[in-house]
């Protein structure tokens, strides 16, 4: 069985760009028929990003076997990595989508009444989605196992 690769920024960038292109085409086709976007609709991703960052820090201490922490079961760490990968991809897709909304409505700020409110919603969504990516990548980073020395005698500082 192959090893798990860590999320590459270029994979997230590709997802964001593709989502932005699709969202932009959809906005061109039907922005006028959309209801006004709630201003703080994107805050959910900010909360999720914060929770994942906190979970990553907690999990990191357990993986490194800090005093006073319980050891981590392998399945818990594997599930955390799966969550982190899925969250970073979802965040990248939403960064692309919110970016497309922002690029579409910002130039129309003074022309369209709905564009003013949608600009705020897109900005909040974009920042929150970026926070989700950050929290997810931190969680994924925290799930890495610490490097073990190859020679056990090197731990004590002497060679036998």
UniProtKB/TrEMBL annotation:
The answer to whether the entry has keyword Cytoplasm is no
Listed A to Z, the keywords are: Membrane, Transmembrane, Transmembrane helix
Where are the bilayer-spanning segments?
Answer: 12-31, 37-56, 89-107, 119-139
Family matches, as InterPro entries = DUF3180 (IPR021517)
Q: What is this protein called?
A: DUF3180 domain-containing protein
Instruction: Please report the organism this UniProt entry assigns to the protein.
Output: Allokutzneria albata
